[in-house]
Design goal:
Elements (H helix, E strand, L loop, with lengths): L1 E6 L16 E6 L2 E5 L6 H8 L9 E4 L4 H4 L2 H6 L7 E4 L13 E5 L2 E6 L1 H7 L2 H12 L3 E2 L2 E2 L1
Parallel strand pairs: 3-4, 4-5
Antiparallel strand pairs: 1-2, 2-3, 6-7, 8-9
Helix pairs in contact: 4-5
């Protein structure tokens, strides 16, 4: 297995790669190329180009969670045409992170609870819909007299 850091807080002296408070790793193993997280911006893309790495060869993108410093690089990758035909796995904290997905698999206690498009899952009224409703409700909560 080979791991290449494409985005991190730190840069190496005299290598002139960009850094940002974010994360993006290229993992190469068993003939496959996997991108773990995409950083906060286009730094992952720019550093890969500077390193001579062709991200079009990546077959799978895994997002460890939905925070911007791990998913923000999706937009520049999409704009560069690098997401077409790729499998993108997202472990989401916020349901809006996956609202535009083609297919969602909802896990509960390590098992598949339901799967489908966001519209199908909302219509079924199961766990996915409940999570969306709870997050929408929590957005309206007030703490000590202020908006949450």
């Amino acid at each position: 297995m080979k791991l290449t850091v494409l985005t991190d807080n730190h840069t190496f002296i005299d290598q002139y790669y960009l850094g940002e408070p974010a994360l993006c790793f290229l993992i190469e193993t068993d003939g496959r190329k996997l991108l773990l997280d995409t950083g906060y911006s286009n730094v992952c893309l720019r550093n890969s180009q500077a390193m001579g790495i062709d991200l079009a060869q990546v077959d799978t993108i895994v997002l460890s969670h939905g925070h911007n410093d791990h998913t923000g690089g999706l937009v520049p990758l999409r704009d560069a045409g690098l997401l077409a035909g790729k499998t993108v796995l997202v472990i989401a904290h916020r349901m809006r992170t996956v609202a535009g997905a083609d297919h969602i698999v909802v896990l509960e206690n390590g098992h598949v609870a339901e799967q489908g498009t966001p519209a199908e899952l909302m219509e079924r009224g199961g766990l996915y819909r409940r999570m969306v409703e709870l997050q929408s409700e929590s957005a309206r909560w007030k703490l000590n007299g202020t908006e949450a």
